[in-house]
Every structure is written in structure tokens, then in C-alpha cells.
Amino acid sequence: MMTGDCSPERWRREYAGSPVTSRANVRVVEQQENASMTGRITRLIDDQQFGAIAAEDGQEYVFQSMALSQTKFSDLSLGAAVTFEPIIGLKGILRASTVRRLTK
Q: Domain 25-101 has what CATH class?
């Protein structure tokens, strides 16, 4: 059960002008024109549609299937090269958004 006012008006009032980009309290790591990164898939959990990417910066970013763009979860495999947009989620968890598999 949710408590509190989650109306769009309240959300806009509280987060207008902040680095927050969604109601999930997610912010973009890099505010650059070309913030996409590359990495390789290190973990895939099929039943949960969840995975992890080892990025070029040495960090590990997690993603869910809804973060995939122009790629199906079933098309991913361990070691596959991908591009993604890095974001920081709740509690500082590194997440990957707009994950795309690079062509072979």
C-alpha cells in the first residue's frame, strides 16, 4: 500500500530543475551529448529478465529487459558486446538504460 501524494503535480513541484529524470528517482550519470558506453554482458538471469554489463570504465551496471532498445532479451548472450546509457538508480545502484547489442 502506497502512502502520500504521488500526483504528477507534486512530482513536478518537487523535482523540477533537479537531475532526476523519472519517478523512480533515477538520474543520468553523464550529462554529455554522447553519454553512451560500451561493455560486455557478464550475467543473465532468464527467468527474471535481468542482466549485468561489465563496462569500459571498470564498473558493473545492471539492467532489466525493459531497458533494452532494438534488442530482445533472448538475443543476448554472455560476452556479447553492447552499448548503453549509464544511470544511477536508488541507493546508488549503477544501472544501464537503452541497452543495445552491437552487431557481430
A: mainly beta
